[in-house]
Write a sequence for this structure.
C-alpha cells in the first residue's frame, strides 16, 4: 500500500519561507496569488494490507516524528 | 560534578563544550554516543552541544531527539539531573519534549553569526549562580533557526514561573524588537524546564571562555554548573 502524508504549518504560525516564495512569485509577475504557505509531502510505501492498520501506523509516524504538533498539522492519504 | 557531552552525527561544537566544562571543573568530560542506551553511572550534567545533527533534516534536532540516548537523558532529567542544550542542543531538547516550544526559521530568513548581548533573567539557578541579577553578558550567536515559538498559554506559564533564562538585549540591557535578532517571542534566548534543571539556549557561552577569542562572559555559566557545592536550585 502507498500513502502520502502532508505536513503543514498550523494557522497563525508565521511562515517566513512561504512569505519569501510569495514575494518571488510577485516579482515574476505571476498575478492573483494572495498568499503562500510552505509545507512538506512524504510519499511512503507500506508493507501493510489492512487499511486500518496502515492508518494507525501512519498516525504514529506523524505524531512521533514527521510532524511537530506544536506548530504543524498533518493529513494522511492512502493511495490504494 | 560529573559531566558528559553527547555526540550525534553532524554536531560540531562538542569540543568547545567539553573545553568549557573542563576549564570550569578541572575534569575532562566523557563523550557519549547517541546510539548508547545508558548514561555513565554518576552522571550529574548532560550537555547537548550545537551543530547540525543529521544535517537539520526534517526539522532541526528532530531526528537526534529520537536517538536511543535521549530516553536515558529524559530519565536523567526526571530524576532531577542537569541538562544543558546549546543551539542545536536547544532544538534537540525542544523536539524531545524536555523543553516546551520550538525553534523556527529566523524572522528575516538569514543565518546570523555575530556577537550578541543577553540579559540574565535570574541568578538563583544551578546554571546562573555566578552571575549577578540583571547582568548583561556578551556571547555569540550562530543560527538559522533560533526563532523561539510556543503557544500563548505556554508563553504565559514560562513568564509567570520565571522560566525565561536569557533574553536578547542591547549592551545597556534594553530588550526591544530592535534588539531581537531572530524574532523570538518575548526576545527569549533560553528557557528552563519547570524544575529549573534543564536549560536550553540558542547563544554559545562555550565560545566565550577565553580572552583570546573575544571575551569570558560565558564562563560564569559553566562555573555555576560545575561548582562542587549544591546550588540554591
Amino acid at each position: 500500500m502507498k500513502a502520502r502524508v502532508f505536513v503543514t504549518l498550523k494557522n497563525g504560525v508565521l511562515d517566513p519561507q512561504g512569505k519569501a516564495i510569495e514575494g518571488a512569485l510577485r516579482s515574476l509577475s505571476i498575478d492573483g496569488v494572495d498568499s503562500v504557505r510552505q509545507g512538506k509531502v512524504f510519499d511512503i510505501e507500506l508493507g501493510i494490507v489492512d487499511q486500518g492498520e496502515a492508518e494507525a501506523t501512519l498516525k504514529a509516524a506523524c505524531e512521533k516524528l514527521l510532524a511537530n504538533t506544536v506548530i504543524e498539522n498533518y493529513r494522511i492519504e492512502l493511495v490504494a | 560534578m560529573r559531566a558528559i557531552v553527547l555526540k550525534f552525527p553532524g554536531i560540531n561544537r562538542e569540543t568547545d563544550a567539553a573545553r568549557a566544562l573542563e576549564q570550569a571543573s578541572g575534569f575532562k568530560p566523557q563523550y557519549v554516543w547517541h546510539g548508547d542506551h545508558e548514561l555513565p553511572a554518576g552522571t550529574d550534567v548532560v550537555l547537548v552541544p550545537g551543530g547540525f545533527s543529521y544535517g537539520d533534516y526534517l526539522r532541526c534536532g528532530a531526528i537526534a531527539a529520537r536517538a536511543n540516548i535521549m530516553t536515558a537523558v529524559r530519565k536523567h532529567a526526571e530524576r532531577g539531573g542537569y541538562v544543558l542544550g546549546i543551539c542545536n542542543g536547544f532544538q534537540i531538547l525542544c523536539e524531545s519534549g524536555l523543553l516546551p516550544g520550538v525553534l523556527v526559521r529566523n524572522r528575516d530568513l538569514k543565518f546570523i553569526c555575530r556577537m550578541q548581548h543577553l540579559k540574565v533573567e535570574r541568578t538563583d539557578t544551578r546554571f546562573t549562580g555566578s552571575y549577578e541579577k540583571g547582568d548583561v553578558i556578551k556571547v555569540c550567536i550562530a543560527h538559522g533557526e533560533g526563532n523561539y515559538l510556543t503557544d500563548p498559554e505556554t508563553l504565559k506559564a514560562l513568564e509567570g514561573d520565571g522560566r525565561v533564562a536569557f533574553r536578547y538585549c542591547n549592551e545597556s540591557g534594553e530588550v526591544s524588537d530592535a534588539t531581537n535578532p531572530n524574532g523570538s517571542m518575548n526576545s527569549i534566548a533560553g528557557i528552563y524546564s519547570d524544575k529549573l534543571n534543564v536549560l536550553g539556549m540558542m547563544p554559545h557561552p562555550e565560545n566565550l571562555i577565553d580572552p583570546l577569542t573575544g571575551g569570558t562572559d560565558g564562563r560564569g555559566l559553566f562555573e555555576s554548573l560545575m561548582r562542587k557545592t549544591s546550588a540554591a536550585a
Remarks:
- Chain A touches chain B through eleven residues (CB under 8 Å).
- The mean pLDDT of chain A is 95.
- The longest strand of chain A covers residues 2-9.
